[in-house]
Input
Amino acid sequence: MSRISITGSDRVFVLTGAGISAESGLPTFRAEDGLWAGYRIEDVCTPDAWQRNPAEVWAFYSARRAAGAKAQPNPAHFALAQLEHQLGDRFFLCTQNVDDLHERAGSRRLVHMHGELAKSRCERDCGRPPVSDHAIYSSLAEVGRCSCGGRLRPHIVFFGEIPFEMDRIQAEIAQSTLMLVIGTSGSVYPAAGFVNWARQKGARTVYIGPEPPLNAYAFTQVVEGKAGETLPGLFSVA
Output
């Protein structure tokens, strides 16, 4: 397998999806035994679900927190942190994942476009920033409230809500010369469209994963393999 060359003038944009976390033991969304097994999206991950039954929503995300706390970063997470260390501000990571495995591996220049599992925010969107929250709630009565009186909700982008930091993401894509997409299905928008934005700006686009994504046609190169086995040693940095 040929190495991916990164020159002194390249700016690298990385998008990661559920596949990279799956290699750390966290379930993906669509596998038969995956994240939604036993749940309906409409019951745990929509604004209506929150309004209808916040207790069930918190039970679901508390279970995810418990699983996330047990998972450990894998070699792919560490390889990306090392690449950031080498490139500095010419590196930017956008993840669709809500776990903190990238941070625990050492990544710092990143955004979580779909939110963060270990944070909560006011259900009223009153303007107060999200707060760190690692609690595993056994009942709704344990969930705190914002200083404005609103109940705290998971700091997660529910289906139907707008992903976070889209302006910054678009700006980073616009100035990138190389886009790396790792472990995502290519079926969830707007993230699935990032590769097209990058191609329009003339960037090289590389996909890395165990099988081609649905939007494989949009990439200039597809590298098949598990991220944890493929990423270490994949990059040649000038």
About this structure: The first strand starts at residue 4 and ends at 6. The mean pLDDT is 93.
